[in-house]
Specification:
It is a single chain. This protein is an alpha+beta fold. Among the domains are: about 55 residues, no CATH class; about 80 residues, 2-Layer Sandwich (GMP Synthetase, Chain A, domain 3). The chain is about 35% helix and about 20% strand. It contains 10 helices and 10 strands. The strands form 3 sheets. The protein has a 4-stranded antiparallel sheet. The protein has a 3-stranded antiparallel sheet with strand order 1-3-2, covered by helices on one side. A 3-stranded mixed sheet has the order 5-6-7. A hairpin with a 5-residue loop joins strand 9 and strand 10. Helix 8 packs across helix 10. The longest helix is centred in the middle third of the chain and has 18 residues. The protein is globular, with a radius of gyration of 20 Å.
Amino acid sequence: MTKVEASTLEEAYELAATQLSCSVTELQYEVIQYPSKGVLGLFKKSAIIVATSKPSSVENINEPVSEPSVENTEKDVSTEIDHSQRETVLETEGEDSVLESFFDTAAEEEPYIDSELAQSIEESLKALFDLSCFDIDVVEVDVVDNTALIFIDGEDAALLIGKEGYRYNALSYMLFNWLHSKYQLYIKLEIAEFLTSQQEMIRNYIQPVIENVQKYGKGKTRFLDGILVQIALEQLREVFPNKYVAVKSGKSGKKFVVINEFNTKTHA
């Protein structure tokens, strides 16, 4: 694993690939900080990522350079990425642990529940909120398989979510960085009913995307922020279990979900 800082995300990806002796498409990474030009040279931010190379056992899936055009397709859900943009779009299925396993709590075998670890994490979170200025009176944690299911509620729960969920996203990544580095756990965070409401909102939003894929065989979402891209990925994979459904990242680092026939799954 390597932590890289550069002026742009593209430079960060290339530098990380050089340090890890792999190609950019073989990177698994998490964006810690997006670059910002600031104002009049002040408050300028560089791009910071933490990256590892994909294990050799993981099959890298590369899209063809060109795709067949689709007529009468809504621009916001199925306009294909042109050749020049495609070179800057990164393959991110399996890109980082949060996106790939945020909701992956189901298992074919009976789930393993670690009550002792859950209690330890719960006590640590309660101690953290006791020292904060937020009035949080409910902190519950379950550890199922390799995922920590965290529920937080209280009078100031809305403040933890923040405007448009930005504070929720920050807290999610903070908890993930802590629990994944220390216990190799993924997380699923619910604050009050925020996650549930976001899931319902995305379910309504992706209906035109689903209809477009059913009609034309492929499509994509608009750019989505934080938790929304994770929810969309989960829901679209449930709807299209036999299609290629993955998260992509554009030049700006913003993410969206694509659905197409590449690497179509077949059942024996």
